Amino acid sequence: MPLRRAKMPVRRPTTMEEFEARCRRQGLPVTSQRRAVLRALAAREDHPTADQLHEALRREHPDLSRTTVYRVLETLVRLGVVTKVSHPGAAVHYDAFTGRHHHLVCDVCGRLSDLVLPGFDALPLPDTRAQDFEIADYSVHFHGRCRSCRPRTSRNA
After folding, report:
1. Structure pTM?
2. Residue 47 is part of which domain span?
3. Relative orientation angle of helices 32-42 and 16-26, to the nearest 10 degrees
4. Cβ distance 95 to 77 under 8 Å?
5. How far is CA 123 from CA 2, 118, 136, in A?
6. 122 confidence band (pLDDT: 50, 70, 90)
């Protein structure tokens, strides 16, 4: 398969204007709940879970249910303004940065951190015709231990 042309990662969340335009194109109402969830997620860099977002939003929006947060996040993913970040054995996390980027995953605490590796954006895609599968996109997750979870001795080495 040919190399994919490298795209520079989008290092900003979708603006409200872009979000509203996507809703209009899909015939979806722009609700206060959708705006609140997108704003809260865009303000964070820690890849929160739906439960973490719900907890953060409860202070300003006490009537916003956990179920609504889950549903809104799924809608935002379908609209392409939010991405899901998941790895085996962990809850799904959400990311407001939708450009191609990669992640560092701490195997101890589960923390996710963004990692921009432009060279990885030009990896040759495998030939998956035999599996009748078309690759749409990819991201790489590097597993290890974050600074907080590494033993003190390995920090000083």
Report:
1. 0.77
2. 16-156
3. 140
4. no
5. 10, 10, 13
6. confident
